[in-house]
Amino acid sequence: MKIKSIVILSIILCCQTTALFAQVLSPPNQDISVGGWYCYRGSINIDNPDKNSEIRIAADSKYWLWINGELEIFEGGLKRGPNPLDTYVDVIKNSNKWKKGKNSISVLLWYFGKDGFSHRSTHTPGISFQLKMEKQELGEQIKWKVKKHPAYYTPKENGLPNYRLPESNIGFDANKSISFWLPDYDDSTWKEPRKISLKKAGWNKLVERPIPFWRDYGLKSYEKIERKGDTLIAYLPYNAQITPYLKINAQKDIKIDIRTDNYDISSEPNVYAKYITKDGEQEYESLGWMNGHQVRYVIPENVKVIDLKYRETGYDTDFKGSFQCDDLFMNRLWDKAQRTLYITMRDTYMDCPDRERSQWWGDVVNELGEAFYALDKKAHLLTKKGIHELMDWQRPDSTIFSPVPGNWDKELPMQMLASVGYYGFWTYYMGSEDKKTIEYVFPKVKKYIHVWKINDEGLVIPRQGGWLWVDWGENKDAELLFSLWYIIALDGYKEMASLVADEKESLWADSLANQIRSNFHKKYWNGKYYISPSYKGLPDDRAQALAVVSQTLPKEFHPEIRTFFNEHFQASPYMEKYVLQALCQMGYYQDAMDRMKKRFKNMVESNYSTLWEGWGIGPEGYGGGSYNHAWSGGPLTIMSQYIAGIETVEPGFSTFSVNPHLGNLNFIKAVVPLSEKREIRLEVYKHSRDMILELEVPEKTNAILHLPKGYQQYLLNEKIVNKKDNILNLTSGKWVLQCE
């Protein structure tokens, strides 16, 4: 009993110790400003540097960390917050930069100071810094000094970024620059920071960063640079998240403007940088990331430009998946979708990396599905983070809304149904096998599912929410879409309930979904397509697509809808994914490829490396007209999942099906990454009279191979297969199927 009491007391003391040192170090009140930059210097004597050291550092809003003059972290911190109250904290383990004796710690802090669609600001700029070494808390021993950085300012000549962005433009006056990160820098005149409790600061609990630190690709040379008047146009190899760099020789007080080609392409100003020169040779890197295909430096001709470079940073994941075929259009579309997916990943999934940088969940549903085919498994941590955030921001009335984190507060009901539904949370589970996340969010999903009510006709009662947004474009039959999205949400909920052993809810969801399907078809089917009685526009292809993918439309009517999809083109690139999916699920694979070519023609043929928000750019688009938008990447999933035919059957692709449909294609090569050393690899070659299929089934997985139709004889690894068998169950290894 005494031992048990000692253990409990030790745990309490440990928690109290952690709470004691987890405090905010904030600049003096008079130095606080929106978009302000602050320098911190700390010193500590360490007798025996420990290889198992641990730093826990949180910030509002971003930080750069040096230890003994060496850069440890380039842009740390995550936009707030994991929920409406708390703050993320980074954990840095096993730094090799500590030394015996005196150690210097330097931090550059960027305080956004305002909310945005991806960040909720506190009233307290600062850092929280804890250091553990030799299993001892050393944070309290660090002596800190702080100073507002004299060189940084917020330029406003061309206006501030649009209200969705918490970031400000960045100005830097090189005449006031200080090298504060150097160990021997004199900080004797600096002030001590204010020490504020986490609660009083508005930071509250510190939640560990759930995603990797950014990948830093280092400074790179541009593809080419050309001058037009006073502007140097530097070309990037593709749309990337970059910080621009320059090295010049100039006289003092010359203003240099730096921005990308998409600064105002969507009619909303994004971010730019200003640099004021000092005398002589100098170099500068603007630390706030921007993106585009070109970086435009406005530099007068009397300034000698020695070098221009850029640093690409981004989410730490590899392009492990691939798709190739003998149709260059489809190859280019798949590759552009992969690039679009990557550039819309950072603190959260984003709709676009310029105008908003916001986690709209209609976009996320498309993104998370693509990630399983395009990127390595680290990408799925961003999905997990987004799922937790969406449900941890749930309101007391059980409704959910996005984008979160941030200052947005309006529910888009159809996007929310998509998020918790079969193609949202359940698709994440089927690809990742992350049962813990489903168990965590299930009670919250249950609350939201039951927010929705059914009318006397057995159909969904529409909910206005905060913004009744259906899709961009015209001819949206919202009455149909409410019931269809709810069916899809119930399908996902049914599976989640079964997974967490809530069979009562699972049976309820299955029964209700089937009732709505039956009632929906009876009321809205006119013999050719679905349409609601009060709707006056052209029939909605979005609704017909969801009717198919939700299994509401009976199979005998598939030929009618096939004709419909050849004549109606209402959906935005966001909803077009479901139209293509519907065609594939009905077996009309070539129709899907033909429609894909028609719809995405302008995007694929453009010089941009990413896909657009609308079917046009800028004024020719809608919703802002950005040329890089996450939701447009749906064709990537269609090509990998339905054309190559690789689809998970059991969670985590432990069992997967292979059922390629080449249509007019002659070959397909596809790779689906499962882990660092495990990949599904498929190659299919079709000739006039035969087909060869080569499949690599990774270890610890099984494949269900569907025999292609229309051949007289099948050989599997040179052994005859009974052609009456529709499928072959394959274990790990290499398999060659010859169809003759």
Structure explained in plain terms:
With 740 residues, this protein is α+β, with helices and mostly antiparallel strands. The protein is built from 16 helices and 33 strands. The strands form 6 sheets. Strands 11, 12, 15, 16, 17, 18, 19, 20, 21 and 22 form a 10-stranded mixed sheet that branches. Strands 23-26-27-28-33-30-31 form a 7-stranded antiparallel sheet. Strand 16 and strand 17 form a beta hairpin.
Features:
740 residues, alpha+beta, 10-stranded mixed β-sheet, globular, disordered N terminus
Task: Offer a quick outline of the entry.
Helix 3 crosses helix 16, helix 4 crosses helix 16 and helix 7 packs parallel to helix 9 (478-499).
Helical content, roughly?
A: 25-40%
Counting DSSP E segments of at least 2 residues, the number of strands comes to 33
Tally of contiguous helical segments: 16
Overall 3D form: globular
- Provide the structure class: alpha+beta
> Low-confidence runs (pLDDT<50, min 5 residues)?
1-20
Instruction: Please summarize the sheet with the most strands.
Output: 10 strands, mixed
Average pLDDT across residues? Answer: 95
Rg over C-alpha atoms, rounded to the nearest angstrom: 28 Å
**Residue fraction in strands:** 25-35%
What's the end-to-end separation, in Å? 77 Å
